[in-house]
């Protein structure tokens, strides 16, 4: 599963792991992405979304209908 949130667009960040001797190695900071299933009454079916925990809070606040409408306007295939 790609570490990209479909609602907020949050993507991995990159940086360095720094050891005790201060050597730097590349690392990746992945967002906390979960696969969630929501029932959308306007579509009459369930949809599956990869959303970060922030995206889940956005869906709780705005409602799934509003979020799905924005996703369809962006051209995301559901």
UniProtKB/TrEMBL annotation:
Keywords for this protein: Ribonucleoprotein, Ribosomal protein
Protein's UniProt keywords contain Transcription regulation: no
Protein name according to UniProt: Large ribosomal subunit protein bL28
NCBIfam families in the record: L28
Keyword Oxidoreductase part of the UniProt annotation: no
Top-rank taxon: Bacteria
Similarity annotation: Belongs to the bacterial ribosomal protein bL28 family.
InterPro entries registered for this protein in UniProt: Ribosomal_bL28, Ribosomal_bL28/bL31-like_sf, Ribosomal_bL28_bact-type, Ribosomal_bL28_sf
Database matches in SUPFAM superfamilies: L28p-like (SSF143800)
PANTHER family noted in UniProt: 39S RIBOSOMAL PROTEIN L28, MITOCHONDRIAL (PTHR13528), LARGE RIBOSOMAL SUBUNIT PROTEIN BL28M (PTHR13528:SF2)
Any one cellular-component term (Gene Ontology): ribosome
């Amino acid at each position: 599963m790609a570490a990209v949130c479909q609602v907020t667009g949050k993507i991995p960040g990159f940086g360095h792991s720094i050891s005790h001797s201060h050597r730097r190695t590349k690392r990746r900071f992945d967002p906390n992405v979960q696969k969630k299933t929501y029932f959308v009454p306007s579509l009459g079916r369930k949809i599956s979304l990869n959303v970060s925990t922030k995206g889940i809070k956005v869906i709780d606040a705005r409602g799934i209908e509003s979020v799905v409408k924005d996703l369809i306007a962006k051209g995301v295939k559901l």
